[in-house]
Amino acid sequence: MKLLIITGISGAGKSLVVKYLEDIGFFCVDNLPPLLIRKFAEICIKSRGKINKIALVIDIRGGELFNDLVPELNALKEAGIDYEVLFLEASDQVLIKRYKESRRAHPLAAEGRLIKGIKDEREILSKIRKNATYVIDTSNLTPRQLKEEILAIFVEGRKFDGMIVNIISFGFKYGIPFECDLVFDVRFIPNPFYIDTMKNKTGKDEAVRDYVMGFNETTDFLTKLKDMLDFLIPNYIKEGKSQLVIGVGCTGGRHRSVAISEALFSYLCGKEHRVVIDHRDIDKDGRSNKK
Description:
The structure is a single chain. The chain has helices at 14-23, 37-46, 69-78, 92-102, 114-130, 143-154, 206-213, 216-238, 256-270, and strands at 2-8, 27-30, 53-57, 84-89, 134-137, 164-171, 182-185, 243-250, 274-279. With 291 residues, it is an alpha/beta fold. It has two domains: 2-154, Rossmann fold (3-Layer(aba) Sandwich), CATH 3.40.50; 164-279, no CATH class. Helix 2 links the parallel strand 2 and strand 3. Keywords: ATP-binding, GTP-binding, Nucleotide-binding. It comes from Acetivibrio mesophilus. This is RNase adapter RapZ.
């Protein structure tokens, strides 16, 4: 029997994850009091395989009852019942934006400041996060990308290294993405924008890509960047970082930054890292350019 405990920060996407898990055959229960975990697990064990994949959502909506979670997980171990913990989180800025858009109240900030409720929740959840089997930061994941992560872990059985690498191409004239951990300026590369045949193309087009990649400065830069990331990523993972956001910027975010980001995306995917890419400014008409 597979027993999965889903918890994490309110607003980080637990409801979406439940839907995805139900689609792949998990029996899901939302907001279960921790004291009932063992009893529920025992009932499922007695079903003799009829219920063999269980996901239980347990979070601070349970109020004081949530305090029983860690002791109950310890009791499961003592009883010989195996389980895994999936912890979902997101940045403060993203959580605030989501709450404002949904107009929902945070469980710990019904009558107070939202940011204080978020910080209080992080403190309450710090111990369970530290010992979680999987930690997924949903700050920069679309629903489709989150679903792919869930399928990769629980269907395909891919190795989970604890970190998602996000690559964001952008234009400096539209501002640096606030969520970036690392920012690289590629405006030193000659700009295809000033070549008539390339002006209206993007870095995903072959002509632009070949132009950008045709300079020694570009190949030297990519070599150094790859070497640096090969050093940084394993060390970030070792320190428990769950998401690395890499920003690559040029003037308008359509040509050079896109081509470089695509090259970096291919390289990191080849290293079997979990990578998503977003060309934020490639087209300002609102169409999605995320992978």
